[in-house]
Amino acid sequence: MTYLYAAYFATWAIHIGYAIYLVGQYSRLRDEMKALQSRK
Amino acid sequence: MKRLFPIFGLLTGVLLSYALYLALEVAPTEQTMGDVQRIFYYHVPSAWTAFLLFFINFAASVVYLIRRNMKADVVALVAAEIGVVFCTIVLVTGPIWARPVWGIWWTWDLRLTLTLVLWLIYVSYLMLRRFSSSGQTPQIAAVLAILGALDVPLVYFSIWFFRTQHPQPVIGGGGSIDPRMLHVLLINWAAFSCLAVMMFWSRYHLEVIKREVDDTQALEALLETPRGPR
Q1: Does A22 touch chain B (CB under 8 A)?
Q2: What is the rounded CA–CA span in Å between residue B87 and residue A18?
Q3: Contacts of A22 (CB under 8 A, 6+ apart)
Q4: Segment B130-154, tens digit of pLDDT
Q5: Of A27, B86, B114, B211, which has the fewest beta carbons less than 10 angstroms from its beta carbon?
Q6: Which residue of A has its CA nearest to B97?
Q7: Which of B196, B167, B190 is nearest to B20 (CA)?
Q8: What is the value of ipTM here, to two decimals?
Q9: Secondary structure class of B30 (helix, strand, coil)
Q10: B169: CB partners within 8 A, 6+ apart
């Protein structure tokens, strides 16, 4: 069962890690867009 | 479409939870491997989803090379990135399954080696997209994607035509599967496909916004550049 849970945990860790990466990219872009709008 | 996203997200969450319940509780226990065989319900759907995404990358790259369509370029990039995520899961869950069943984490078997090569090709593709600043990067990347896609059928059919450590395919190709296991497998594939669609939608819009911001910043930098003496 340890191997089974390890595999399922690894799968979700990779998906959640990728989701966190996307959220991080989105917040960085939002900051850049705000900076661009404030300069206009 | 923006309004549908949270509803689709909720449905995907429900489907993933149901698929997890089926995989852990409802699917029958395999006679020789025992409970560890349930890794199959995450390993195989992840592989199928990765293959599908690499095919989308291939098709979009062909369209980009023919029409120089920027949307096709974005689709190719996003499909490759999410394909790598799913392929990584295949390469991680495979050895975790192999250790208790084969007694080893890894072997340089044809199927395993070709899958690793496939992953390396698409990681190279993403690194090319990320670090190359040449104006021809999308064209070079599209050619790499088309060549890389040739590895997908090699991975898939390697267990049909060669004797390998990896088990035979469960659908077609001589393998067989209990109908209850097949049902759980297909539900899990549907759930992971929905998750891939959500990731694709989010990443596609992120890339479109990123390109707009990059273009605006480049234009601004150009306008701010002081002119030299005439």
Answers
A1: yes
A2: 13
A3: B199, B202, B203, B206
A4: 998 778 888 999 999 999 898 888 8
A5: A27
A6: A3
A7: B190
A8: 0.92
A9: strand
A10: B159, B160, B175
Nearest-CA neighbor of B195 among B26, B48, B21? B48
- Which letter, b or e, does each residue of B37-55 get, where b requires 16 or more Cβ atoms within 10 Å of its Cβ? bbbbbbbbbbbbbbbbbbe
Q: Give me B185's structure tokens.
A: 């497998």
Distance in angstroms (rounded) separating the CA atoms of residues B9 and B17 = 12
Contact criterion met (CB < 8 Å) for A22 and B35: no
* Cα gap B40→B33, rounded to integer Å: 11
Say whether B95 sits in a helix, a strand or coil: helix
Q: Tell me which amino acid residue B77 is.
A: L
**Between chains, do B100 and A1 touch, taking CB under 8 Å as contact?**
no
Chain B residues touching chain A at CB-CB below 8 Å: 20, 35-36, 38-39, 42-43, 46, 82, 85, 88-89, 92-93, 96-97, 99-100, 195, 199, 202-203, 206, 209-210, 213, 216-217, 220
How confident is the model over A14-37, as pLDDT tens digits? 999 999 999 999 999 999 888 888
